[in-house]
Amino acid sequence: MTRAAVLGAGAWGTTFAAVLADAGTEVALWGRDEDVAAQINAERRNERFLPGMDLPEGIHATADAREALSGVDVVAVALPAQKVRGIIGPLADAVPDGAVVASLMKGIEVGTHARMSDVLRDVWELSAERTLVVSGPNLAREIAVKQPTATVVAGTDSSAAEMLAAATASSYFRPYTNPDVVGVELCGAFKNVIAVGVGVTDGLGFGHNTTATVITRGLAEITRLGVALGAHPDTFSGLAGMGDLIATCASPLSRNHTLGAHIGRGLSLEEAIERTGGTAEGVQTSLSIQELAREHDVDVPICDAVVAMLHRGEPIKELLTQLLSRPRKAELT
Ligand SMILES: NC(=O)c1ccc[n+]([C@@H]2O[C@H](COP(=O)([O-])OP(=O)(O)OC[C@H]3O[C@@H](n4cnc5c(N)ncnc54)[C@H](O)[C@@H]3O)[C@@H](O)[C@H]2O)c1
Ligand SMILES: O=P(O)(O)OC[C@H](O)CO
């Protein structure tokens, strides 16, 4: 039987632990809060991060990360993207030599512009073959009640990706493998920025035409940057690309979408973060994406508008006018 450790007992880490347990994988879930771990073990609930959701029996929660990591075949990391480097650094010697390590995170590190799998590789000195990414249309609260969904397990070593896919597959969770780590990971991070943008237009009271426009042109931005970074063009129309964009931009469960809607209704960034709760990665990742795009000479006007709104407090209506009055261009380039 495969043994897994999940680091991070927030909404997604807890849900992913349930996915592993339901697939027959033995799973230890690490969270820093002892009360959260105690409640998961005693009541099969994580009321702080996943209120109202029942968890399966097979999860052993602990506040001791070294205990969670001991003897596992798979390590899955679900921590806030901007904090993960500092949190996992001290655990480097506790990661078993042969274990594959998967990033479940959807962000790009500010300053370094590193994708999360690169942060894991850097901090834990992992080979590319041992490092995986899981990303797709995966809203935690839907999966926690076993609503059917699919995801992508990306890895350069197909046998490692297949191992994690087998360790997560169940009657409600269908993993596909993909060798395009760069593309899958960029999709997961960049879609959060686009979801903030769609949330803003919702908050302004605009309808489905606007939503569809931002999603579609957002996908064009993600694809342009991804291809410039060496990703496979087909990844962007797949589950991690279009699939996750639809889920995140359409659902009120998305923290990024919700945060954008608060901004569109006139809240400040601080108020929006407070009201949203949980980790809305698009806020900081918008800065990294904008800088990455500049480095690679890629045009990302929606991302630019999100950065201007969130981080420079520029008026939304003026930014919209600027977006719509840019020089016209052909859709196909
Ligand atoms: N929630 C989802 O539906 C979902 C789905 C797919 C991917 N993701 C991604 O997973 C990642 C985690 O998201 P989440 O939804 O679980 O976030 P969350 O806000 O629900 O949980 C964050 C977790 O990180 C822990 N944490 C924060 N700071 C810490 C520190 N200094 N030391 C130790 N632990 C710390 C918190 O205690 C909590 O357990 C993000 O990158 C997100 O984009 C989320
Ligand atoms: O709640 P969000 O906005 O972090 O989105 C959650 C997942 O990434 C959706 O796939």
From TrEMBL:
Which EC numbers does the record give?
A: 1.1.1.94
Location comes to: Cytoplasm
One Gene Ontology MF term: NAD binding
Q: Which UniProt keywords apply?
A: Cytoplasm, Lipid biosynthesis, Lipid metabolism, NAD, NADP, Nucleotide-binding, Oxidoreductase, Phospholipid biosynthesis, Phospholipid metabolism
Q: Which reaction does it catalyse?
A: sn-glycerol 3-phosphate + NAD(+) = dihydroxyacetone phosphate + NADH + H(+); sn-glycerol 3-phosphate + NADP(+) = dihydroxyacetone phosphate + NADPH + H(+)
The record's GO CC annotations read: cytosol
Task: Extract the InterPro entries matched here.
Answer: 6-PGluconate_DH-like_C_sf, 6PGD_dom2, G3P_DH_NAD-dep, G3P_DH_NAD-dep_C, G3P_DH_NAD-dep_N, NAD(P)-bd_dom_sf
Residues given in the record as sn-glycerol 3-phosphate binding sites: K106, G136, K191, D244, S254, R255, N256
Where does the signal sequence lie?
A: none
Query: What's this protein's function?
Result: Catalyzes the reduction of the glycolytic intermediate dihydroxyacetone phosphate (DHAP) to sn-glycerol 3-phosphate (G3P), the key precursor for phospholipid synthesis.
Q: What is this protein called?
A: Glycerol-3-phosphate dehydrogenase [NAD(P)+]
Q: Which organism is it from?
A: Demequina activiva
The taxonomy runs: Bacteria, Bacillati, Actinomycetota, Actinomycetes, Micrococcales
GN (gene name): gpsA
